[in-house]
Amino acid sequence: MPSAMSEIFHVVPTDDWLMHEEHHDECVCGPHVEYFTRGTVVVHHALDGRHAGDAGWARRRAREVATDRALDRLPG
Ligand SMILES: [Zn+2]
Questions:
Q1: How far is the CA of 1 from the centre of ligand 1 (A)?
Q2: How far is the centre of ligand 1, averaged over its atoms, from the C-alpha of 12 (Å)?
Q3: Residues in the chain, pLDDT under 50
């Protein structure tokens, strides 16, 4: 039976310069949005540039969250 298909998880940097918008994908930081079978992960970018030297960070973090929450499993 169908469950909450579009659960959205936000990954927000702590102690950043501003508050991130966690209600839609239109945060000022231009978050990395990744869609998985059972939900969506929105990874916000820290405006202080703490991940500037690591281009793959947002994608990696999204996959970590997806694994934690089992978002990448097939339905059923
Ligand atoms: Zn943000």
A1: 33
A2: 7
A3: 1-2
